[in-house]
Design brief:
Elements: H1 2-33, H2 38-50, H3 52-63, H4 67-93, E1 95-97, H5 100-120, H6 128-146, H7 161-192, H8 196-221, H9 225-247, H10 257-278, E2 282-284, H11 285-303
Length: 304
């Protein structure tokens, strides 16, 4: 029976990732047909898309009364994005060169988002006021990213009925796959008698970070590793602001002992390690191996 639960989880996460991809591609085309600039689409729709699987599972987790899954998924995804995704990227690319703009804007924004998250959870919960603050902080981040950019020549593209149909169908698939993802997590946790937060920190976080893994490795092979780093940083910022900010409106987000004593401090450590690595404007191969070892240590501590 436990095998069927894991199979259900794998299928549900697979559909969640793929349907999210279809939803974002359709959204991009619809935005372009309305005359939205490619830069704005990339900063908003695409960046939002990297957090769509986490957001969908978060909303259903709150509906099902499993707040530990929400915090576990966000914290676990942020750790996985830094240690696993960037670790693999640095090993494959041998070295990741960070451009000045990334170091000047995105990495400080990532550190600020992690510190805000930690401060808000210091009392064990995130209330509605704090949720609004997180969403406002996301708005400030988007505005600051947009400011100072050059205007682009906006060219509208034509889109047909098929794009809108894909948009609707993929949205429905995101809904149902998120529901079955949460259901399978609860069943697995009950079957092997461990907390749903641990499943979220490990399996769900890994599953929802698979798109970042594939995108990063592909970017490294094409010599664009820096772009993949920006994608990871943007994903972590969006995870913290929009996923937590939206989920908190559905109910209290309470911390568990595992999250308080280990996982949240580990996420902060991962963020600061990345910030320190960025001081040299590059992430070397040996640092990539160190990141991977830290990810293995993270998983080991979860399950002992």
């Amino acid at each position: 029976m436990i095998f069927l639960y894991f199979l259900m989880f794998a299928v549900a996460v697979g559909f969640l990732i793929k349907s999210s991809d279809w939803f974002i591609m359709a959204s991009e085309k619809i935005g372009a047909s309305w005359g939205v600039s490619p830069f704005v689409i990339g900063l908003t729709i695409v960046a939002f898309g990297t957090s769509l699987p986490e957001l969908a599972t978060a909303i259903f987790a709150m509906i099902e009364g499993e707040p530990g899954i929400v915090l576990g998924n966000v914290i676990g995804s942020n750790i996985t994005n830094i240690f696993l995704v960037l670790g693999l990227l640095a090993v494959v690319a041998k070295s990741i060169n960070l451009d000045f703009d990334l170091f000047k804007n995105d990495i400080p924004a990532l550190v600020i988002s992690a510190l805000l998250f930690w401060l808000m959870l210091s009392d064990g919960d995130i209330d509605h006021f704090e949720a609004v603050f997180l969403l406002l902080a996301l708005g400030v981040f988007i505005f600051s990213s947009l400011s100072g950019t050059e205007d682009e020549d906006i060219v509208k593209v034509k889109t047909g009925f098929k794009t809108y149909l894909i948009f609707i169908v993929s949205g429905a698939l995101v809904y149902f796959s998120a529901k079955y993802t949460i259901d399978s997590i609860v069943l697995i946790a009950e079957s092997i008698n461990i907390g749903t937060d641990i499943i979220a920190l490990s399996l769900v976080a890994l599953g929802t970070s698979l798109p970042e893994v594939s995108v990063s490795i592909l970017a490294a092979k094409r010599g664009h590793a820096g772009i993949a780093v920006g994608n990871v940083i943007g994903s972590n910022i969006f995870n913290t602001y929009i996923v937590i900010g939206v989920a908190a409106f559905f109910g209290p987000l309470e911390m568990t002992d595992m999250l308080t004593n280990f996982s949240l401090p580990m996420m902060l450590a991962a963020t600061f390690i990345l910030a320190v690595s960025s001081l040299s404007k590059s992430i070397s191969r040996w640092e990539g191996f160190l990141y991977l070892l830290l990810y293995i240590f993270f998983l080991y501590r979860l399950f002992i």
